[in-house]
Design brief:
about 325 residues; mainly alpha; Cytochrome Bc1 Complex, Chain D, domain 2; signal
Length: about 325
């Protein structure tokens, strides 16, 4: 056998060996743990099975419709940008309304929102349908004076009467505020964002790098899953901000809805999906970087001073939760 042939044979054997090598025992155990404690994102949101193409198309047009704001300057997409690689937010601490007034809470991502147990930081809307009705009439947001003016604009438009009729074929008067909200919700139910983490949970051991796997292990061992658990890694409970060490804020959170003193400073736990793309962070948008957010959560919620090394590891893992179509 010539030297060249021998070298080629060795390379073939090495390649076959590498192909034959499966995941390490540690990776297998981590996959099993992640599947049990977190799980993969479902392929569709609750209620999506009833959404027709016509309803979704109408909802998408309405989502980008600036006529739904008093001065024709804002749409749903203004604060919850889903165009291109945008992750359903405006990446501002808090968002300006139609007339320039800035809100007092950070705009959460609309991606995967239909999986959440309630909507808004304080949970004041029970679902996407109810949530969609709020900003249009909010004086600090889209600032329309009332439902009647919203419907008048839609009825006077050359396209909307026909689009509503197709989306709601059995309705005598298809253009209603409830139908508007349902159409927007139908479009939002299409905004499911699968990630490399889901591939990992579903059995692809190579979907996460070793650094990301180390970060996942640190995320779990540090106790982050005590709040950020389940398929959304959050989005399914309220927790007091400053659970162990107080967090300085004047926002009373859930209390503003319930008026129950025990709800003071409680907020919906945000989902960590796409968190690497949705900064700045927290309800007030005052935390600029993901690493700083991780540090503050460790301190305020878990009573831990996470090391720089652990913060870096966790941040690496959280990056794997980003929508695969919205990352560079």
């Amino acid at each position: 056998m010539t030297k060249q042939k021998y070298t080629l044979s060795v390379l073939v054997i090495l390649c076959l060996g590498l192909v034959g090598c499966g995941p390490s025992q540690e990776t297998k155990e981590l996959q099993a743990k992640a599947k049990q404690m977190l799980g993969a994102l479902p392929t569709s949101m609750p209620g999506a099975e009833n959404d027709t193409p016509e309803l979704i198309a109408l909802g998408k047009k309405l989502y980008f419709e600036k006529k739904l704001s008093q001065n024709n300057t804002q749409s749903c997409n203004s604060c919850h940008n889903v165009e291109g690689k945008a992750a359903g937010v405006d990446n501002l601490p808090t968002s300006p309304g139609a007339f320039g007034k800035t809100g007092d809470r950070n705009s959460p991502t609309v991606l995967n929102a239909g999986f959440h147990f309630l909507q808004f930081w304080d949970g004041r809307a029970k679902n996407l349908h109810e949530q969609a009705k709020g900003p249009i009439l909010n004086p600090g947001e889209m600032a329309m004076p009332n439902e009647a003016e919203v419907l008048k604009r839609l009825k006077d438009d050359s396209e909307y009467p026909g689009l509503f009729a197709k989306a709601f074929p059995s309705a005598k008067d298809a253009i209603t505020y409830e139908n508007l909200a349902e159409a927007i919700a139908a479009f939002e139910r299409t905004l499911v964002s699968p990630s490399r983490f889901d591939d990992f949970v579903n059995g692809d051991h190579s979907a996460l790098s070793q650094e990301e796997q180390n970060g996942l292990q640190t995320f779990i061992s540090s106790g982050c899953t005590s709040c950020h658990g389940g398929k959304l890694l959050g989005g399914d409970s309220f927790r007091k901000l400053g659970q162990v060490n107080p967090y300085e804020t004047n926002d009373l959170g859930r209390f503003n809805v319930t008026k129950d003193a025990s709800d003071k400073y409680f907020f919906k736990v945000p989902s960590l999906r796409n968190v690497a793309l949705t900064g700045p962070y927290f309800h007030d948008g005052k935390v600029a970087t993901l690493e700083d957010a991780i540090k503050k959560m460790g301190y305020h919620q878990l009573g831990q001073n996470l090391s720089e090394a652990d913060v870096t590891k966790i941040a690496k893992f959280l990056g794997s939760l980003s929508d695969k179509t919205r990352t560079n």
